[in-house]
Amino acid sequence: MAFWTYMLLCADGKFYTGHTDDLERRIAEHNSGGYCKFTSQRRPVELVWSETFPTRAEALAAELSVKKWSQAKKRALIAGDWKKLSYFAKPPKERLSTSLETNGENGGTATVRTERKTVRVERSRETGITQ
């Protein structure tokens, strides 16, 4: 018997993560309402990701892990974008900012790649002004 961990996209843009041994039945229950208070108030829901596991314990462990993830990390998982998933798996202080500012590492210097050239951006530690 297979078990699934799944993620639903609710009508309000929030995600619901769960696990089951019958994915089709569970999705129908979520969409009919009454099964789960969270999804009943956010219908319709759409299945956006699922993964099979050999045991219920493994499916539950995956559910509990994915539930804690940020929206950005969940969206990367749904898209199968492993580069973004890896990026969002890092604590925010360890990520290089995607803006022109840095996260405080490397002495306030970041290298930002644009389509045409690489630009070096430095930020003054005293004023915080980007130069």
Q: What can be said about this structure in brief?
A:
With 131 residues, this protein is α+β, with helices and mostly antiparallel strands. The protein contains five helices and five strands, in the order ββααβαααββ. α4 (71-79) runs antiparallel to α5 (82-89).
Secondary structure layout plus pairing:
Layout: E1 3-10, E2 15-20, H1 23-32, H2 37-40, E3 45-53, H3 56-67, H4 71-79, H5 82-89, E4 109-113, E5 118-122
Antiparallel strand pairs: 1-2, 1-3, 4-5
Commentary on this structure:
Residues 99-131 have low confidence and may be disordered. This protein has two domains: 3-89, GIY-YIG endonuclease, CATH 3.40.1440.10; 93-122, no CATH class. A hairpin with a 4-residue loop joins strand 1 and strand 2 (15-20). Helix content is 33%, strand content 25%. The strands form two sheets. It has a three-stranded antiparallel sheet with strand order 2-1-3, with helices on both faces. With 131 residues, the protein is α+β, with helices and mostly antiparallel strands. It has helices at 23-32, 37-40, 56-67, 71-79, 82-89, and strands spanning 3-10, 15-20, 45-53, 109-113, 118-122.
CATH fourth-tier homologous superfamily of the largest domain: GIY-YIG endonuclease
In whole angstroms, the N-to-C terminal distance is 60 Å
Main pleated sheet:
3 strands, antiparallel
Helix content: 25-40%
CATH topology group of the largest domain: GIY-YIG endonuclease
Low-confidence stretches: 99-131
